Amino acid sequence: MADSAPITHEEYRRLCEYLYRRTGMTFNETRRYFVDRRVADRMAATGASTFADYFARLRGDIDGEIEQFVNAFTVNETYFYREDHQLQCLTANLLEERLKVKQNGETMRIWSVPCSTGEEPYSIAMWLLENWPQVDAHDIEIVASDIDTEVLSAAREGVFGKRALMRLSPALIDKYFVALGGDRWQILDDLRNSVRFTPANLVERAETRPHGLFDVIFCRNVLIYFDDTSRRVAAENLYENLAPGGYICLGHTESMSRISPLFEVCRFADAIVYRRPMGDRRG
Ligand SMILES: C[S@@+](CC[C@H](N)C(=O)[O-])C[C@H]1O[C@@H](n2cnc3c(N)ncnc32)[C@H](O)[C@@H]1O
Questions:
Q1: FRET pair for 105, CA 20 to 30 Å: which of 39, 65, 96, 263?
Q2: How many CB atoms lie within 10 A of CB 129?
Q3: If we measure between CA atoms, which residue out of 196, 246, 254 comes closest to residue 225?
Q4: Is 83 in the pocket of ligand 1 (CB under 6 A)?
Q5: Which neighbouring-strand residues pair with 179?
Q6: Band of the pLDDT at 30, cuts 50, 70, 90?
Q7: Are 245 and 276 in contact (CB under 8 A)?
Q8: Mean pLDDT score of the chain, rounded to an integer?
Q9: Whose CA is nearest to atom 23 of ligand 1?
């Protein structure tokens, strides 16, 4: 891996602008080290000798470079049972509220977007099995999406290290994982098969819309990487993916009220979440 990328201030600006248009993520000068390292890696991987050469390959999508480039720049930090007060809210309130307005037998749809390496959607599945006694009485679909195709492959494989499991009790680990040795565990096939992983870019309506309407969306810890404009675009896209009266959970540092007026704030005992009103708020 190269130590630094020989790119100028202007090249840095062009690269960040390109990344922003593709993903909604913003990188200012304070992230220079992070960006330089990744550019150096991609230049080495593609054999580009200058930034101009690399940028031309990227823009021409030579050998699928756009996908590799996006994958290189995402920040995929996640772990099981992260902010589990929201999972508590899911089973104590959100699903019960949704059941009141759903037809008998209608599928309950939950979307984890972005799902990174899968800890979040698998946590939802485990939490439902552990904490929602009615789980077997309902048809539940868990969909999990991310812009990063590499994390989606890892998520489908379902192999995790110690750090990812740090918030799970030994009893839960024993129950839902197979120890592979070397501090690696694979989630049980039943759970792996209970989540459908599919790519989606939150700032591209053409990629979010086909996923259809959900009862609950978990969109946690991604809007922090966006600027106001891409946050609003993502919020409007997600609004369209919520059934009327459906809920959206954000990360604890993120607030929908500062992003978009489309949603209602709902304060439950365990979490503050947002809701698409029953009537449409768009003009
Ligand atoms: C920090 S992880 C959050 C994972 C999980 N939601 C959690 O809270 O633990 C952020 C994820 O956002 C994804 N991401 C970044 N930009 C995206 C976009 N425009 N559309 C979809 N996913 C995106 C990244 O690939 C990364 O996996």
A1: 263
A2: 15
A3: 254
A4: no
A5: 185
A6: confident
A7: yes
A8: 95
A9: 147
Q: What would the two tokens of residue 13 be?
A: 């600006």
Q: How far from the centroid of its chain's Cα atoms is residue 63's Cα?
A: 26
Q: What is the mean pLDDT of residues 234-249?
A: 98
- Look-up of token digits 């409007």: 236
Q: If 0-12 CB within 10 Å is exposed, 13-18 middle and 19+ buried, where does residue 167 land?
A: middle
For residues 245 and 247, what is the distance between their CA atoms, to the nearest angstrom?
7
Beta strands (DSSP E) in 75-191 are: 108-112, 140-146, 159-161, 177-181, 184-187
Q: What tokens does 10 get?
A: 């202007």
* 213 CB within 6 A, ligand 1: no
pLDDT-based confidence at residue 236 (cuts at 50, 70, 90): very high
Catalytic residues: 38, 146
The reported pTM is 0.96
Structure tokens at 104: 């008998």
Q: How far apart are CA 188 and CA 195, in angstroms?
A: 12
